[in-house]
Amino acid sequence: MGPYALLRLARGRLEPGIPGQFFMLEAPGRLLPRPMSLCLARPRELAFLVDPVGPGTRALSSLETGDRIMVFGPLGNGFRLDVRSPLLVGGGIGIAPLPYAAGALRAPPTVLGFRTRHHAEAASLIPSAEVVVEPTFVTEILPAGDFDVLACGPEPMLEALRRIVPGAQLAWEAPMACGYGACWGCVVEMGGQLRRLCVDGPVINGGTHGSPVGPLL
Amino acid sequence: MILNASGCLDALTAPDVARSLDAFVTKTVTLLPREGNAPVRIVETEVGMLNSIGLANPGIDRFLSDVLPRLEELGVPLWVSVGGFCAGEFGELCARVDSHAEVSVIELNLSCPNVDGPEESVAELVAAARRSTRKAIFAKLSPVTLDFDSAARAAQAAGADGLSLVNTIRGLALDARTLRPVLSREVGGLSGPALKPIALAAVHECYRATGLPIVGMGGICTGHDALELVAAGARAVALGTILFSDPAAPTRIAGELARELSIRGVSCLDNIRGAAHEPTFSPKPNPQLEVERLTVAR
Q: Under an 8 A CB cutoff, do B244 and A199 touch?
C-alpha cells in the first residue's frame, strides 16, 4: 500500500459499525491508544490503514502475525449512507474509511488524491476510483452534477470541499486520548461551541464548524 | 473501593463504565459555564500525558437541572467535584449541591493546574465549603508541595472529611520538529504512570499526618498499583488516564486487586491499609535454608 500499512485484525466479537466510525487501537509501548477509522470489514477481519508517521502509528504498522492488541469500538458517528447520489472524495491517509464506504454504497463514483505516486498505490483499495497526484487536487476533478459528497482527507482538502459543497459529510480528526467522551481532549468548534469530535463526530455535516487541530500520531 | 478521577470519565457517554465503579466522580463544576481552553488540549509523553482542558463544564445551574438527574439514573453513588476561583465561590457551590440528597460526597478541586486558581489558602477554601454543607467534603490537593503534612493538617483542621491525592502536576511538551509547546496553553497537567511515585509519597505523608480517609490516585494501571496506594494509606483509589486506554479497567483492576490480597493471605483491604508504615509487614518465615555448593553440568 505504498508508504501505508494495512493492519488486518481477526474480528473477535467486535462489530464493524458504520463506515466513518472508528476504533481505538492499542499502540504497543505507548500510553494512549490511537483512533483509526475502519478501512475494510471482511467477514472475519477488521482492517485499518495506518500511516507510520509517529511512535504510535509506527508501533501499529510494525505488528506481526500473531501479535495481540487491545481494540475497542466502533465509536463516534459514521457517514449517513441514505443519500441519493453518493460521491466519495479522499486525500492521502484520509482515504482510510472510504473502501468500507465504497463497499456499503456499491462502488459509487470516487475521486482520490495523493502527494506522490508512491502514496497513490493505496488507491488499489478502491479499484474503480479516479486518482490524481499533486500538483493536481481532487477538487479539480470533481464530476459535474448534484452529488452527495462523503469525504475524508487533510484539512485543506476538507475546507475546500466545504466551500464547494456546503452539505458535504466530512470526516475530521483531532488528538484523542480515549475515543469515547471521557478525556475532552478532541474538542472542535461546532456551531459556535467546543464539542468533542469523538462523540459528536468524527463525521460532521459541512457548515458551521472550525477546523480541528492535528492528530496524535 | 474504585472510583474514577474527576474529569477522566463522562458517565453520560459511557454509562457502563460508570456503573463498573463503586462511585462516580463528576467533572469539576464551576459557578458559571466554561468552554475550557482552546485546542490543542492533550499530548502524549514518554511516561504520561499532559492535558489542559481548563475545567470545561456547563456551570452549576445547568449541571443541577440537566446533568445531575441523568447521573442519578445510573444507580451509582455520586461524588460532585466543584471548583471555585475564590473561597466565596466554593461556599456557594457547596450550598447549591448540599440540598441534593443523591450526592454523597463533595470533592473540592483545590488544585487544577490549568486555570488561575484562588489566592486563598487551602484552609480558607475548605472552611468556606465546610460552612455551606453538611455533606462529606474531600479536599483534592496538588502534588506541588514539599510539605504535604501542613496542607493535609490545614484541610483537616478546616473541616475536610477526607483527602483526594493527587491532582496532576504541571508539565510541558515540545513539538519534535518546531520545538514549540504542543499545547495551546503551553503547559498542562501531567498524568499517567509518571505520577504514581508522587501520589504514593503524598498519600503516605498525609495518612501519617492526619489519618483522614484518602482517595489515592495517580498512574494506577494495575491491581498492584492500587494495592501500593492502599498500603501507603488510601481508603479508596481512583482511576484516571488508564480509563482512556482501557474502559474495562475498573473491573480488571478490582479483579487484580482481589488476587493481590489473596496471594498475600489478606481477607480485606482494611487489613493491608497503611502497611507501608509498619516496620515490617508480616514477613512469612522462609523454610529451612539449604545451602550447598553445586557444580555446573557438562
A: no
Residues on chain A touching B53 (C-beta within 8 angstroms): 183-185
Cα separation of B124 and B128, whole Å?
A: 6
| Chain A residue with the nearest C-alpha to that of B41 | A185
Angle between helices B223-232 and B196-210 (to 10 degrees): 30
Q: What is the CATH number of domain A86-212?
A: 3.40.50
In the set B112, B206, B221, B268, the catalytic residue is B112
Helix B122-130 with B87-98: angle, nearest 10 deg: 30
The pLDDT of residue A208 is 47
Q: At what angle do helices B148-157 and B122-130 cross, to 10 degrees?
A: 20
Mind listing the pLDDT tens digit for each residue in B129-150?
A: 999 999 999 999 999 988 899 9
* Catalytic (active site) residue B8: no
Residue B272 and residue B227 in contact, taking contact as beta carbons nearer than 8 Å: yes
CATH among 1.20.1250.20, 1.20.1260.10, 3.40.50.300, 3.20.20.70 for B2-297? 3.20.20.70
A113-144 confidence digits (pLDDT tens): 999 999 999 999 999 999 999 999 999 999 99
Compare CB distances from B244 to A182, A187, A194 and report the shortest one's residue: A182
- What is the reported pLDDT for B146? 83
pTM: 0.91
CATH number (1.10.10.650, 1.10.10.10, 3.40.50.300, 2.40.30.10) of A5-75 reads: 2.40.30.10
- Which of B13, B39, B244 lies at the smallest CB-CB distance from A177? B244
Contact A175 B9 (CB under 8 A): no
